[in-house]
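User: Fold this, then the next.

Assistant: Folding the first:
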Amino acid sequence: MLTVRELGYGFASRSVGEGVTFTLAAGETLAVLGGNGAGKTTLFRTVLGLLPVRSGTIDVDGVPIASLSAAQRAMRVAYVPQQHVPAYAFSVTDAVLMGRASHIGTFARPGRQDRLAVADALAALGIGALAARPVTEISGGERQLVMIARALAQQASLLVLDEPTASLDFGNRARVLHEIDRLRAAGMTIMFSTHEPDHALAHADRALLLADGKPLALDTVAKALTAANIERLYRTAVRLIPLDGRRYTCVAMERERRA
């Protein structure tokens, strides 16, 4: 589905990361973790074809991402950025409907299937009541849910989310994580970044840990997210506490002060 080989990424003036290799199959979820400035967003923008590859390759369904047009990429990959500040007061429905652009022909109007996809996406995230509201008059957390709904309405096979729960309250965060699990079970390939090891442990199959743009670990979440690796990644002591036979939660520990 998605194959990344020896990827070097960044900007024309500087490199941000290198040596990233992974493959994601249908229905598999990869969590990407790293401190601020580790290169997660730049990696995502490169995988999406928004930034040119500096070295290595990125293939979607065996096709180089750089060879696809914007419309072809949109049919395959949906993206939810960290933040979105709307410039115009589109209704929530119209904002989500924009996710259907790659399914609608030039000069064509949205049809019944497009509007059903929008309604389903709004319902899945529990924001149907916002449908008629202008996106400029809802909270930042609600706008994030609208952007996720737009990506769902796109109905691409690969979903890329950059810190999707960062601005959400507890209830909406749980709703988004539940939706990730539902899409994962339905066979969608998902790649998301997070600062929360707990989210990766509970909602991903594998984890990629980035430190200064380079892979620190890439494995199943159980093998990649060890206490030692998390401590190296975030430079703080942690403890992994078992919740049941197969799940853990990560707790930061205050280091003992030396006398």
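Now the next one, as you asked:
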Amino acid sequence: MLKLKVKKPRQFISPLLSKKSVTITEIERFDSATQQYLSELEIQRKTNQSEPNIVSNATKQYFDNLSSNTKRH
């Protein structure tokens, strides 16, 4: 029988990552990019766009927004 072994976050996240602090500004930027993505996704859904269009229009824009948010520092 397979046994489930539950780990705490600190047990599987790299120690280097766990020491990185996240600022309120970074969280707000992430939240803003996510809200824009959800809005764009809803627009794509309402206009019955195909999956490739949704990926190219909504998802790509979301990752571009996240990427540009991290480059501001």
